[in-house]
Amino acid sequence: MSPVALVLALVTADPAQAQADAARSGAFRVTPKRPVAELRAEAMALAPPAERGPFHPVDLVATIYHSLGIDPHMEVLNDLKQPRALVEGTPALGLFA
Question: How would you class 21 by CB atoms within 10 Å of its CB: exposed for 0-12, middle for 13-18, buried for 19 or more?
């Protein structure tokens, strides 16, 4: 199950109730479908996605570009009109699996 699907399966919000709560307290509230203790136990049993060894800061930049839909391996022109890689890092694709 994807992380987004898991979150959507774990919480629910009644639109009418959410509007009433927001009007009353100024905050939007989400009501869990299952008890919080049960959700916490399930979350603690999960593991982060497997990735290769240590990451370098350029890998983080490549991951951010990838998440925005920008190919981190594309070439751009510098001030001298020479082609250069946008970033040399490798995106952490396991975060998007």
Answer: middle
